[in-house]
Amino acid sequence: MYLFNLKFAAILLYFGCTTVQSVYGQTSTPADAQVQARANSLLQQMSLDEKLQFIASKYPSNASPGGGAGFIPGIPRLGIPDLNMVDSATGSGSTTQASSTFPATIALAASWEPQLSYDYGVQVAKQLRAQGFGMGLGGGVNLTREPRAGRTFEYLGEDPILAGELLAARTNGTQSQRVIATAKHFAGNEQETNRMGGNSQIDERTLRELYLLPFEIALEKSHPLSFMCAYTRLNGDYACENKFILTSVLKNEWKFQGEVQSDWGATHSTVKAINAGLDEEEGSDAGPAFLAPVPVRSVLVSRAVSQDRLDDMVRRKLYVLIASGVMDDAPKGGGTIDFVGANSFAQSVEEQSIVLLRNQSNQLPLKINAPKRIAVIGAHADAAVMTGGGSADTFHPVTGAFAGCGGLRFAKTDGCGWWRSPWLKVDAPLTKALQQLSPASIVSFAGNRDENVPFRDYTPDEIRDAVTLARNADVAIVVVAQPAGEDFGDLQSLNLANPSNQNQLVEAVADVNPHTVVVIESGNPVLMPWKEKVSAIVEAWYPGEAGGKAIANVLFGKVNPSGKLPISFPTHDQNSPTWGTDGAFATDPIYTEKLDIGYRWYDVHNIKPLYEFGYGLSYTHFSYSNLSVEKTDGHDMVARFSVSNDGHVAGAEVAQVYLDISSPGEPPRRLAGWSKVSLTPGEKREVRVVIPPKALRVWSLDGDRWEFVVPSKVEVGSSSRDIRLSSQ
């Protein structure tokens, strides 16, 4: 199993020391003690004024130098550099500097490949340092409880172990480049609806087994130096005032040594927030309010906040700067970015993340030059749907502006919302990529070419033109899109929207061409009422700046798809665990489904999803055999089995290990580990998957403790519902 155990790269590179595991799973090092000693020495030399400038971002939201999101001024007399921070979910979020746009992180999750996640962290961090940023804010790991959630594309799926392992790998990659990584949004931030004031109500067992677990895994395996507390309330207290998660769990139980920063404008008090464990306030549009010098001085005088607590806040910030390497090698900005190399990497990520959902009669792969006439249809097929909206968007180096919104960052026109438009930003169309790959084919396009109004419905004439083109083509490729993003609000339905009549377009094309291929560009699951009418379906996610080339390579078989779904696709909106009676989003969500989210929900309620968690087809076939399970001296277990490539082309299979815990309240199946295996035709390989202790425990119902359990069954399969081997 790809379980990253890279150590705290920045510290080890700096001090060259080995590590020792502590009882809490945190890694304790001699180097860590040296970092703490150095932080204490600097703290003792700081004046009160200098300490106070160290706990709140200087500028209002996204007004920092270089187009950054936040800024902590340095202290030159002590050799402490400025710290400039920036959004970085899918690339640098600088509002003034050109950056690459990588595939959405939900696509990264679909690769099931921690090494790729590590490389992703490296590539983004290199651009951040070149731009002058020492901190990236892209470590989103909230789980897909609600498949319609607007920021699903920024996260890593519905399973805590998959999400935690991938965040750990990305964090290691980020911090290997001397850039501080953030884990967010801590915790219970699974929807956009009423995120600024909602109250997520989650029982402790569900909180620990699901929503805190990916953070815990990432902390153990990669040590993100910053945790960002969320906007929402959690069980009554704002996340940035929640002493249980910030101090009792994160700092005391998990022994977190880094800092807790607020989301932008997520601080609501001075005394309660500081005493709960908040270390740094990031400003709203008006700048910092509660941790600014005046209010903090006042509460120090009144002793509502102790001097020791202020010193702890500052010490943690110093620790972060030293441990990351930023203290001694701060980014200067003005560096050179290899945009060509980054584009190639973006293409590689997308190629490993595309999920082939349907392939009737082996419609795919297409043969180069064999389809004489290829019809490409859809409003975005001649441009691009790059990524989701909001803080995850990037300023592209080719266009130098944000097209579709007239280059205005906060434009309110053309459906762009409060942030810049991500939908039609750069000329990276599938049409050109297909033509280049199959030069003897005639590639023609039909769709909405009005880029100034990207979300309008197709007119009857446009649908008629698409049908005419498809009728005379050997293959029809219909590109559909589902825009979503931060503060755009959650989707009201998983039905395709923007344009709202995309389903009508697909069905009209499929009625006249039996060789219809649908390419989906989305950050969420989508409903597919036309599924049985089309011959092939490809989930491309938000594919980034090289999406056209990557999709073309998969369609023509230059790349064998190996992506697997990190989220379940329901057949109907009503099948999802959070739909309720009318699909309305709760302003104060109560997690009544408890542990039953995603594939667990479908298993418990015996509902057949449209496509299950872990599902994904290949152009070859894999078989499984010879399962054996053994215990180790500790709480680990090891599953061994063989995987064979029975087909005629090379491919990669994500072999997944699931456990039946058979404990009261537990779903019948939980992911425990996996291995992504690349095999040539006819090759057979033994696979060894270590099942870690965190997959073998439940939170006690009658006491505040973890209990380790022996699973009643170990299963191995190609998806959560395609089980090939069982220990029973």
Automatic annotation (TrEMBL):
Domain named Fibronectin type III-like: residues: 653-720
Molecular function terms, GO-annotated: hydrolase activity, hydrolyzing O-glycosyl compounds
InterPro entries in alphabetical order: Cellulose_deg_GH3 (IPR050288), Fn3-like (IPR026891), GH (IPR017853), Glyco_hydro_3_C (IPR002772), Glyco_hydro_3_C_sf (IPR036881), Glyco_hydro_3_N (IPR001764), Glyco_hydro_3_N_sf (IPR036962), Ig-like_fold (IPR013783)
GO BP terms, alphabetized: carbohydrate metabolic process
Keyword set, alphabetical order: Hydrolase
Matches recorded under Pfam families: Fn3-like, Glyco_hydro_3, Glyco_hydro_3_C
Family: Belongs to the glycosyl hydrolase 3 family.
Name of the molecule in the record: Glycoside hydrolase family 3 C-terminal domain-containing protein
Protein's organism: Tunturiibacter psychrotolerans
